[in-house]
Amino acid sequence: MIFFIKLLLAHLIGDFLLQPARWVVHKEANKVTSKYLYLHVLLHFLVTMVLLWDLAYWKLVGIITLSHYLIDLGKLYANPYFKNKNIPFFIDQFLHLLVLYACAYYGNLAEHSLWLISQLDWGLVTAVTFVTFPAAIVMGKLLEGFANQIELDHKSLPNAGKYIGIIERLFVLVFIILGRWEAIGLLIAAKSVFRFNDLKETNNRKLTEYILIGTLVSFGLAILTGIIYTRV
């Protein structure tokens, strides 16, 4: 495990801490001819070797470095085909992690992968999955009648409310699993403080009631999910 952690740390240092934004811009503009692409890959090799501190791993690190170059190069040429630039970024990072995992456990890759799958808490996976988008859809259905009566006179980020709800439900679920019920109260208080100014300025009673109902339903779904997970 420590071997994989060192490989992961080297990746985080090389891909984020030691890669200035101007390198990224230069790579996207010049692609395979960018000098920073090769400097970036060289830094990955050096950082990984330093963290492992064993010359016997140079071939393995060479494979990781070569794969890093090919994955980064593929992302540079694939970027223009994606309207959402986050998609190639996350695909890129996933492939890097996949290579690191395969290199760390190449001796017993299949056995270790099966062991990891066997260790999954499927109840927790189901609970986490539910409080994200499924719960958001359920809330949308429950509050649909109220939403049609709300007139918004201000602009907000697209789908901001949905993602705020998902994050808050995940927090609530974690707090319940950890047995920290008091933290849920602090979360509700914090959200109320942030919402207070908006509601005071709009002076819209329907909007206030809608937000209050939505918050209570959101927290209620997360609490119910957490109780079911911890008691079953």
Characterise this structure.
- It is a single chain.
- The longest helix is centred in the C-terminal third of the chain and has 27 residues, at 205-231.
- The protein starts with a helix and ends with a helix.
- The protein has helices at 2-17, 21-30, 35-52, 58-78, 86-104, 109-118, 122-131, 133-142, 144-147, 160-178, 181-202, 205-231.
- The chain is globular and about 65 Å long.
- Helix content is 80%, strand content 0%.
Rg: 23 Å
- SS content category: mainly alpha
| Low-pLDDT stretches | none
Helicity, as a percent range: over 70%
| Strands, count | 0
* Biggest sheet character: none
Tally of individual helices: 12
Topology as a string of helices (H) and strands (E): HHHHHHHHHHHH
Distance between the termini: 31 Å
- The rough form would be described as globular
Q: In percent terms, what proportion of residues is strand?
A: under 5%
Rounded average pLDDT: 90
Produce a short descriptive summary.
The chain has helices spanning 2-17, 21-30, 35-52, 58-78, 86-104, 109-118, 122-131, 133-142, 144-147, 160-178, 181-202, 205-231. The chain has 232 residues and is mostly helical.
